[in-house]
């Protein structure tokens, strides 16, 4: 049980440190899809 709690804390810390990178990748992906859509019109 203690191992699960430590791994959960580590995972949440990793997510807190990297959430902006995930947002950055999502924004880039959205911009690429929008550009492809507008380019196909």
Please characterize this protein's 3D structure.
- The chain is an all-alpha fold and 41 residues long.
- It contains one helix and no strands.
- The chain has one helix at residues 2-39.
- The longest helix is centred in the middle third of the chain and has 38 residues, at 2-39.
- The chain crosses the membrane at residues 21-39.
- Keywords: Membrane, Transmembrane, Transmembrane helix.
**Rg from C-alpha positions?**
17 Å
- Write the element-wise H/E pattern from the N-terminal end onward: H
Total count of strands: 0
Structural class, by secondary structure, is mainly alpha
Summarize the structure.
With 41 residues, the chain is mainly alpha-helical. The chain is built from one helix and no strands.
Task: Give me the secondary-structure topology.
Elements: H1 2-39
Features:
41 residues; mainly alpha; 0% strand
